[in-house]
Amino acid sequence: MGAVSVFDLIADEYETVSYAHDPGSGLRCIIAIYSTALGPALGGTRFWPFESEDAALRDVLRLSRAMAYKASAAGLDLGGGKAVVIGDARTAKTPELLRAYGRAVERLGGAYITTADVGTTSADMNIISETTRFVTGTSKGSGDPSPVTAYGVWHGLKAVAEEVWGDASLASRHIAVQGVGKVGAGVVRHLAEEGAQLTIADIDREAAEALAAEVGADVVPPEEIAGIPCDIYSPCALGAVVNDASLPGLKCRAIAGAANNQLERPDHGDALEEAGILYAPDYVINAGGLINVEDELHGYDADRAHAKAAAIGGRLRSVFSRAKADGISTAAAADAIAQERIRNASR
Fold it and tell me: Is 82 an active-site residue?
């Protein structure tokens, strides 16, 4: 199989794909900008040992479009972009490389604003900020976005409950949470305070047991959580949890969680609709992190960021209404809403 054609992959959807290389530091990165119709493209920097440059390109293109949709659906005046640095963050990441990457971002003149993602941290953003103005999520700014992400997911879960049962209260609702890292644990604590019945799972069994003891949850192995009979299944770890293998075993009334790319394929949104399972599109319900770093661009205000994240519930209600009105899945409705806002801005 020959090398992938960049021009075939970007077609007429993407604005810019930029490659940068710095021999001295070993930097090899790709920055993709899907759209700047609504504003500068904000997206994280993923530091990852991709198996090939083709794999890195496909990942950055997929992620940049997802960021554009997330920003649009959240009502933010931002476009969508993403960057990938090819390498193992544990061994290849150095201050020299991060500064070289900052210079690559700076050369784009503000069309792309970077922040932290897998393999990068707020401390890394501090170093990157030495060579570019176009960075957010530093330790001096909005800081760790996970509490705001969890807060937004909690409000999204309440909108799901209202849609399914006519009552936004999550008290006594059985919610199965997959993944209790920073965001998942935050979601669990919000749910526990509201009186939800909780079953949790994580690959780190000790972390799951400790959180369960704190909030009074049950713990199951990670491979069992998706099939637990419950009201809401909340994926807060890995993506692609809704797939051909998992669909027949789902025993929930709704799926709503913080994980990215929960549907392995777009048509799985239709499959959930046919199964009578309400799906809260992931990039709508988990937009709190993006909302948090976006607020830093205006002079960070924690109360304002939380208020914007609380509005995620209302945005999900709009998605549910659009899906019913058009007779389409909630996944398709979210895409339509995001695409329309971008298209209207382009005009």
Answer: yes
